[in-house]
């Protein structure tokens, strides 16, 4: 792989002690893994969620208009992107944050050609603000941005080793899938990405790899061609 997009959930940055917010030590650990891969010459783009701060479909958004809640969630993704940018920059990685919601004081507006140019110059590009539209998740934003920049794959970072037939936390005997087709993911209702994102990837034959980011070295191994996690593609 020469250019990849890594999808990070906001929950990955969560302070486990309080159940919300940003744990800077976790952000630093994630940045370390990303910096290691970037150092190998891989062009790296990121989409960050905001569920650790606010999610439009969460219980905390109950009573709010859905569009309003989603816009609040988009701003949460920008906060996470800025935190990760700061950590990456401290590790010597040049970065740019691009947002789908104009916020000129803190980040660039999303411009596809500019993002590609940043990648070609060796900068890590962090896409924030989702798609800029309510009713769409950051999964869909990840699929859209990956296609826009011509990424070789979406790498969906999780805290488990891939996609299982059941929740591996609740069921230790759960079976790990080595590979799946897009249709299998949709038909089995497996929680890889939302249906819109899976359909978008399927229509454009964009592979998705679900892997454990918190196993040191996994991202580097994956980008170098090793079989890590679960691959979702045109055929299982």
Map the helices and strands.
Blueprint (H helix, E strand, L loop, with lengths): L2 E6 L15 H15 L4 E6 L17 H25 L4 E5 L8 E2 L2 H9 L3 E5 L9 H12 L3 E6 L4 E2 L11 E2 L1 E3 H7 L6 H9 L4 E5 L5 H6 L6 E4 L3
Parallel strand pairs: 1-2, 1-6, 2-5, 3-4, 3-5, 6-10, 9-11
Antiparallel strand pairs: 7-8, 10-11
Helix pairs in contact: 1-2, 4-6, 5-6
What does this structure look like?
The protein is an alpha/beta fold and 236 residues long. It has one domain: Acetylglutamate kinase-like (Carbamate kinase), CATH 3.40.1160. Helix content is 35%, strand content 19%. The strands form 2 sheets. The chain has a 9-stranded mixed sheet with strand order 4-3-5-2-1-6-10-11-9, sandwiched between helices. A two-stranded antiparallel sheet has the order 7-8. Strand 1 (3-8), helix 1 (24-38) and strand 2 (43-48) form a beta-alpha-beta unit.
Summarize the structure.
Helix 1 (24-38) crosses helix 2 and helix 4 (138-149) runs parallel beside helix 6 (195-203). This protein has a single domain (3-233), classed as 3-Layer(aba) Sandwich (Carbamate kinase). Helices cover 35% and strands 19% of the residues.
Write a concise keyword list for the protein shown above.
236 residues; alpha/beta; Carbamate kinase; nine-stranded mixed beta sheet; two-stranded antiparallel ribbon; 11 strands; 35% helix; globular
Described by the principal axes of the CA atoms, the overall outline is globular
**What integer value in Å does the Rg equal?**
17 Å
Poorly predicted regions = none
Report the CATH C-level class.
Answer: Alpha Beta
Number of helices: 7
Helix fraction bin: 25-40%
CATH fold-level name: Carbamate kinase
CATH superfamily: Acetylglutamate kinase-like
The proportion of residues in beta strands is 15-25%
Q: What is the total number of structural domains?
A: 1
Taking strands numbered 1, 2, ... along the chain, how are they ordered across the largest sheet?
4-3-5-2-1-6-10-11-9
Order of H and E elements: EHEHEEHEHEEEEHHEHE
Indicate the CATH architecture.
Answer: 3-Layer(aba) Sandwich
Mean pLDDT: 91
Number of strands: 11
Provide the structure class: alpha/beta
* Distance linking N and C termini: 20 Å
């Amino acid at each position: 792989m020469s250019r990849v997009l890594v999808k990070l959930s906001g929950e990955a940055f969560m302070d486990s002690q309080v159940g919300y917010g940003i744990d800077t030590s976790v952000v630093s650990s994630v940045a370390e893994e990303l910096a290691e891969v970037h150092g190998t010459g891989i062009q790296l783009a990121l989409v960050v969620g905001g569920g650790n701060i606010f999610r439009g479909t969460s219980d905390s958004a109950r009573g709010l208009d859905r569009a309003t809640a989603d816009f609040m969630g988009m701003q949460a993704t920008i906060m996470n992107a800025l935190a990760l940018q700061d950590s990456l920059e401290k590790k010597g990685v040049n970065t740019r944050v691009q947002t789908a919601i104009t916020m000129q004081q803190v980040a660039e507006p999303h411009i596809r050609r500019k993002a590609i140019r940043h990648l070609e110059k060796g900068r890590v590009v962090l896409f924030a603000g989702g798609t800029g539209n309510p009713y769409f998740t950051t999964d869909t934003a990840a699929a859209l941005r990956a296609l826009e920049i011509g990424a070789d794959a979406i790498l969906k970072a999780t805290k488990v080793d891939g996609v299982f037939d059941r929740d591996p936390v609740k069921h230790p005997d759960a079976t790990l899938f080595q590979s799946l087709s897009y249709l299998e993911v949709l038909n089995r209702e497996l929680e890889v990405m939302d249906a819109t994102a899976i359909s978008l990837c399927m229509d454009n034959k964009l592979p998705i790899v679900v892997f454990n980011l918190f196993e040191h070295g996994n991202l580097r191994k994956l980008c170098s061609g090793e079989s890590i996690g679960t691959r979702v593609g045109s055929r299982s």
